[in-house]
Amino acid sequence: MNRKEFIQNSLIIGGATVLPSNSFLSASVNEGGLDKLVDESGNFIQTALPYTENFLEPSMDAETLHLHYTFHHGGAVKAANTDLKKIKEALDSNNLETVDYWTKKLSFHFSSHILHSIFWTNLSNKSTSPSGELLSRIEKNFGSYDKLKSYIAATAKNVDGNGWGILGYQPFSDSLVVLQCENHEKLTQWGVIPLLVIDVWEHAYYLKYKNKRADFVDALFPILNWDNAAQRLNTALKITK
Ligand code: MN3
Questions:
Q1: pLDDT tier at 21 (50, 70, 90 boundaries)?
Q2: Going by C-beta distance under 8 Å and a sequence separation of 6 or more, which residues neighbour residue 48?
């Protein structure tokens, strides 16, 4: 979709642009179909939220969304740019004393940027469910959509400390996988492309849900955007086949 079509297809509600849910991905991706996370110079950039801050109420309150997008996701983008700069300086000056530190930091911050960018597009204010290729792969790999829901909910609710529950496409086994990610970058499998991610860092829910992480995860299920996950699966299959 080009910019003109994108604008034509967007609805103007209350002065804010609200996108139809199936445009969440196409509005913010590069030509290859992956999310646009860097500019032409390779610096990390944060794409605008695909909806207004109160769009996900009551499941996700506007204040939490504002703080989460601006300071947690935004902070990771800024920090990732610093990490890149420090690595470049180390290479330019041939002083590798601290390069391991900045490399670890970049893994943490860039992974945060990737997962948050996907997370925003994985949410909507209407109920959807998997269909087509996504549904048939869910049934093949997990038995049923209900089984996948129980699996990913249990995985997300039980993360030790901060982290994510993730449904991804694993190209090396040509299958869907569920991951329990700690922080933003631990316990992954090489090659997995995230399709649907659930942020269970305390910053994602504490203002509204306090210590009740399980209630937050349950409240997210009705607003998970499975159309977006399906679109992501199509992209993943296209770029790995
Ligand atoms: Mn977060």
A1: low
A2: none
- Alpha carbon of 122 to ligand 1 centroid (Å): 13
- 128 Cα–ligand 1 center, Å: 23
Please tell me the total count of domains within the chain: 2
Strands (E) in 131-174, as ranges, are 163-170
Global confidence as pTM: 0.90
Tell me, what CATH number does 211's domain have?
Answer: 3.55.40.20
pLDDT digits (tens, 9 = 90+) for 122-173: 999 999 999 999 999 999 999 999 999 999 999 999 999 999 999 999 999 9
Ligand 1 centroid, distance to 91 Cα (angstroms): 31
Q: How many CB atoms lie within 10 A of CB 180?
A: 20
200 alpha carbon – ligand 1 mean position (Å) = 7
Distance 72 CA to ligand 1 centre (A): 6
Torsion of CA 146, 136, 129, 17, to 10 degrees: 140
Q: How far is the CA of 87 from the centre of ligand 1 (A)?
A: 25
What CATH number corresponds to the domain at position 85?
1.10.287.990
- Domain holding 87, by residue range, is 3-20+35-48+60-121
What distance in angstroms lies between residue 170's CA and the mean position of ligand 1's atoms?
Answer: 23
**30 within some domain:** no
Q: Are 73 and 114 in contact (CB under 8 A)?
A: no
